[in-house]
Design goal:
Layout (H helix, E strand, L loop, with lengths): L5 E3 L2 E3 L5 E6 L4 E8 L3 H18 L4 H17 L1 H12 L3 H24 L6 E3 L13 E7 L3 E4 L13 H9 L3 E4 L5 H17 L7 E4 L5 H8 L5 E5 L2 H13 L6 E4 L5 E4 L1 H20 L11 E5 L2 H16 L8 H15 L5 E6 L9 E7 H6 L11 E7 L2 H10 L3 E7 L9 H8 L2 E6 L38 E7 L12
Parallel strand pairs: 7-8, 7-10, 8-9, 10-11, 12-13, 12-17, 13-16, 15-16, 17-18
Antiparallel strand pairs: 1-2, 3-4, 5-6, 6-19, 14-15
């Protein structure tokens, strides 16, 4: 049952007067449940509880933390149809997407739990002493990691489960030994509360300290600002816009003790299509990319927003086929009126630039349903106009017709950091395309061969990050087992008695 209250540790509280309702994007009406924004006092209580919980939770064994994570997955699954129904009502996303995202969320939790149980996730190093080394003795040195402390996690708009309350940031932070305070996303506060209730139940069932998790409602920016400024918060996880992520980074840097903000932000995910690929499969790739551009109403951080190729009749055929395939796909609802408004505004700004030709646009007159579109521009115009480089969050992509390979490489080199870059080519071109691959690899976090960027596999080899502004720190991933590294720091023990060493260093 949705109460609209905040979880301050294991207590439900709503002492504030600021309330709000989520919106049903399909019907474009407010949902019946009302949420109460967390007060300053409630935020401070949540962070104090998290700090006190950290003193105990950081010493909880890997086995017990694994039990906790598995219990969270169990409790999320136990929410059953209520969670799916509220998810769909608040997001406008279909039931199949809700079920798939719930499965991914639970898989992330269980994967982290399995890693903890294996016990080798800290990547320790032990250098034993050499007391008789000349000219100076070598001390005994043992390297491990310890958790940073309480983490503030900001729920994302486009993944109400997998990147939100119990998503990858929360799962990896809890796995590392860090309590979590979630700033719930206002567009799916009801979904967030249900998931929060599952986490609290799991914490109580497995004996975790009160304050290991809290969930705060917020419709504005004040709750998030106070969280990031709070001295008891030691790191931040964020998935969202460049503007939002940049603001959090600046707040964190201004603190007397600056803290890391691990933000996954904007990306246009360039796709390079070779001449041979166009000659042999223009129609096939156009149909494939029509599906990728419109998947999830284009509301993925890996949406292919930029298609690069050398100008040719085959590129004309690709563009024509892509245009026809896009209009065959029925428009879907966007996440809410603010998302739809921002999409429409940015799309209009990009398509109104000099030299930009809209080659297809499927306009939907209904409320929050998306106006799918593809545009085309020359490489020269793209290079001259930075406004064409910005992310348009929704079902939109722009084809850039390059005069030659040199111009194509120049465009790649001039791009901001991206999450993904894709190469569409034939195997016979492997040797001739290596320069493009190398250039692209220095602008992106993941390079894809003959596929689509949409879809992020949760596995140890996945990197979901990239050079700024794709993410705030390109050395880390927001997805997969290695995401745990964000919430830890190195520590060396020199010449320590065995009895005082952590278990993994003895």
């Amino acid at each position: 049952m949705i109460t609209g209250k905040n979880y301050i540790g294991n207590q439900l509280k709503a002492s504030g007067s600021n309330t709000f309702k989520t919106i049903n994007p399909k019907l474009n009406i407010q949902n019946e449940w009302e949420s109460t924004e967390a007060t300053s006092e409630e935020i401070a209580e949540a962070t104090e509880l998290a700090w006190q919980a950290f003193k105990a939770y950081r010493n909880v064994s890997d086995e017990k933390r694994a039990e906790f994570l598995n219990a969270i997955a169990d409790e999320i699954e136990a929410l059953g149809e209520e969670l799916i129904s509220v998810y769909c009502t608040e997001s406008g996303l279909p039931e199949g997407r809700a079920q798939g995202e719930r499965g991914r969320t639970c898989f992330q939790l269980r994967s982290m739990a399995e890693m903890l149980k294996k016990g080798n996730w800290r990547h320790t190093d032990i250098d034993t002493a050499i007391p008789d080394r000349e000219p100076m003795p070598k001390p005994d040195l043992r390297l491990s990691v310890i958790p940073l402390g309480p983490v503030a996690v900001f729920g994302s708009s486009n993944f109400p489960l997998a990147y939100s309350t119990a998503g990858g940031d929360t799962a990896s932070a809890l796995a590392a030994g860090c309590p979590v305070v979630v700033k719930s996303h206002p567009m799916h506060a009801g979904t967030g509360e249900l998931v929060a209730s599952a986490i609290i139940k799991a914490a109580e069932k497995t004996g975790m300290p009160n304050g290991v998790f809290s969930n705060l409602n917020s419709r504005g920016i004040q709750v998030g600002q106070q969280l990031v400024k709070d001295t008891k918060i030691k790191a931040v996880g964020f998935t969202g816009s460049i503007r939002g992520g940049r603001a959090l980074m600046d707040l964190a840097a201004e603190r007397p003790e600056p803290i890391p903000v691990f933000a996954e932000m904007g990306s246009i995910n360039p796709v390079v299509i070779s001449q041979k690929a166009l000659e042999n499969g223009a129609a096939k790739w156009a149909a494939t990319y029509a599906g990728s551009i419109t998947l999830g109403t284009g509301q993925f951080c890996t949406n292919p927003g930029l298609l690069l190729a050398i100008d040719s009749p085959e590129l004309d055929q690709f563009a024509s086929t892509l245009a026809s395939k896009i209009v065959e796909i029925e428009p879907m609802v966007m996440l809410g009126p603010n998302i739809k408004s921002a999409f429409s505004s940015l799309k209009a700004e990009v398509t109104s630039q000099n030299g930009v030709e809209v080659i297809t646009s499927l306009v939907s007159a209904e409320g929050n349903f998306a106006d799918q579109a593809v545009a085309r521009v020359s490489g020269a115009s793209f290079l001259e106009n930075p406004k064409l480089h910005q992310e348009v969050f929704g079902p939109f992509s722009i084809i850039v017709s390059c005069k030659d390979e040199a111009e194509l490489i120049q465009i790649i080199e001039g791009l901001e950091g991206q999450l993904t870059g894709t190469i569409i080519a034939e195997n016979e071109e492997i040797s001739s395309i290596s320069n493009i691959v190398e250039t692209l690899s220095y602008r992106v976090g993941r390079v894809i061969w003959n596929g689509v960027p949409t879809g992020v596999e949760v596995c140890p080899a996945m990197n979901h990050g990239g050079p700024y502004p794709a993410s705030s720190d390109s050395r880390f991933t927001a997805v997969g087992l290695n995401s745990i590294k964000r919430w830890m720091r190195l520590i060396s023990y020199q010449s320590f008695p065995s009895e005082l060493l952590p278990k993994e260093l003895k």
